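Z., the sequence and structure:
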Amino acid sequence: MNKFGNIDILSGECNLSTIRDGRGGIFTWVPDEPILEFNMVQFSPGKVRGNHSHPEFNEYFLVVEGSVVMVTKSLVDDLEIAMIASKGMCFRTPMGESHAVYALTNATCISLLTKPWDECDKPIIHDDLLPQDEEYVRYAKGQGFKHSIEEVRKRT
């Protein structure tokens, strides 16, 4: 298995008979742990999602359309590192690992969690890997988002 910082890069398997029959292909990823929730996440170009870690679950992240840049921190020197990801790439981000995603294009991804979000005492801890644009900062503040970056900063 390949690594990107402390994030695993999973390879999808393909049963060749699903390609040979002329209808397309079936690609499969088999996680080492139960998936208890999954979410479809859509991105607009130039926007950031993430900038956090998850203290209570591992997250699998499958890019199904478009191109994004995945950002995390180096295990060696704690500096940010980035990797471009496009359709078919899948990541396993372990508990506590900071990560952010920047959309290069319109993108759709599936986020798969090993514990349901609503069952967590604290599903995310924010980090500032990538800056959010001012439009989002104003919106999040106006909405009083639970676990927004502004809320987290008030506590620290």
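Helices lie at 17-20, 134-143, 149-155. DSSP finds three helices and 13 strands in the chain.

Let me know what you think.
H.
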